[in-house]
Amino acid sequence: MLGNFQQSQLRIEIEASEEDIRESLLDPTELERWLWPARLDRGLPDRLTVGTQFKTHIGPIAIAHEVEVADSQGLRLLLSEGIDGFHEWYWGDGWIQSRLEGVSLLPLNLGQTMNLLRLREFLSAKQRSRSH
C-alpha cells in the first residue's frame, strides 16, 4: 500500500445519549446521513454486526470495511483499499472517542476530525428536532 503510516485519536463531548450515538454508528441508514459526502454500498443489513463488509466511496476513492467488533459501546472496523488499517469508535452518554490508524495517501486526521464534527452536528440536529 502506498502512503504514510498515520494515527489519530480524538475524543469529544457531544450532547447525545449513548443510545443515539450507538444508532448513528451501527445503523447504516443513520451512518450514511452524517457521513456525507461518503456513500455506502447498497443492500446493507439494518444493523452493522460482526462480519459485515461494505465499502464507502469518497469520489473515486473506495475504502473497504469489515466489522470486527460491534457492541453496545464500541465499533471496530478493519480497513483496506484507500486506507490499510483500522478505525475504532467508543461512546457513552455525552462523549465519543475515535481512534484511527493506517497507511494511506489520504489525510486521516483531517477526515477523522471532519467526521466527528459532522456526527456531532447530526446528533445536535436530532436533539433539536425532538425538543420542538
UniProtKB/TrEMBL annotation:
According to UniProt, the name of this protein is SRPBCC domain-containing protein
Q: Which organism is it from?
A: Oxynema aestuarii AP17
